[in-house]
Write a structure and sequence with these properties.
Elements: E1 3-9, H1 13-23, E2 37-41, E3 51-52, E4 62-63, H2 64-74, E5 81-85, E6 88-94, E7 97-102, E8 106-114, E9 124-125, E10 130-132, E11 142-144, E12 150-152, E13 155-157, H3 168-187
Parallel strand pairs: 1-2, 1-8, 2-5, 6-9, 8-13
Antiparallel strand pairs: 3-4, 6-7, 7-8, 10-11, 12-13
Helix pairs in contact: 1-3
Length: 202
């Protein structure tokens, strides 16, 4: 069973940006060189139903399907980051010893990030509190109860599942924030992921 430092459950906007943030420090520090990250995506991101008219960096009005394809291609730049298309059904265990069961196989992880969206949460195992999402206009949407994106020791949530508003840039930023929060846990310092090594610590 392959062991990962962080498994991100959900490969939409926030999940991908969390993974990219984590992996983009891969060659900059001794502590980051041997880390392994996995994004598990069930292919159901809301981005696939959208078009983007307010996100600089993509073509104006680009379809969400195209944007998602481009983001997934971008992941190939990071040799410590994998993407698998599977459905997670159960997560159990504690920090440094989580077991993630999918429709196809099992994985081990030191830390977990849920980036599962706001429509439903059907993953069993951990004792999570799913409550009403109070920052969206649509009824019957959910979030996972958290404090500043942290659910419990070693378990985070980002994107719409954390309770943020439904915009691409907000979800992307929330994923990046969780990546930086994990850096801080590992190093004891406020960390970000910049392009140059000398600027990587803020």
């Amino acid at each position: 069973m392959t062991n990962y430092d962080v498994i991100i459950i959900g490969g939409g906007v926030s999940g991908i940006n969390c993974g990219v943030t984590l992996a983009s420090n891969q060659d900059k520090f001794e502590w980051s060189k041997d880390k392994k990250y996995l994004i598990i995506d069930d292919g159901k991101s809301d981005l696939n139903k959208a078009s983007l008219f307010n996100v600089a960096g993509f073509s104006y009005g680009v379809s969400g399907v195209v944007a998602m394809s481009e983001m997934k291609e971008y992941l190939a730049n990071f040799n410590q980051l994998e993407l698998k298309t599977e459905t997670v059904v159960d997560v159990s265990g504690v920090r440094d010893n989580f077991k993630v069961v999918t429709s196809k196989q099992e994985y081990k992880a030191n830390m977990i990030v849920f980036a599962t969206g706001m429509h439903q949460f059907e993953i069993t195992g951990l004792d999570l509190s799913v409550v009403e999402h109070d920052k969206v206009m649509k009824p019957n949407k959910i979030k996972i109860q958290n404090i500043d994106n942290k659910i419990s020791d070693g378990v985070y949530v980002c994107g719409l599942a954390s309770g943020v508003k439904t915009m691409y840039l907000i979800a992307a930023g929330d994923g990046c924030k969780v990546g930086c929060d994990i850096f801080q846990e590992w190093t004891g310092k406020h960390m970000v992921a910049h392009d140059s090594v000398k600027d990587a610590i803020s």
